[in-house]
Please model this.
Amino acid sequence: MPWLRDNGDALILTLHIQPAAKKTEVFGVHGDGLKIRLAAPPVDGKANAALIKFIAARLGVSKNSVTLIGGETVRAKRLRVVGVNATVVRDQLTPSS
Model:
């Protein structure tokens, strides 16, 4: 999966974010990124905070285990996740049909 990379001590997720959506959900693949729709608006860091909370909850890790490492002000984002393996990430972030 091009959106998931094992970096040794952490996993790197490449995401494409659609803020201000009707609901927060994993939507599918967009290019090399996993597309996530967020209900939060893209103002004052609300969408980034909602993204971290959503990913942490889906993966069963604390919010401190998820760090935004790229794309603070754009839709293309990269997250660093510790404390979970790639199999769990694939299972939990598979888009719902």
User: Anything to note?
Assistant: The chain has a mean pLDDT of 94. Helices lie at 46-59, 86-92. Residues 46-59 form the longest helix (14 residues).
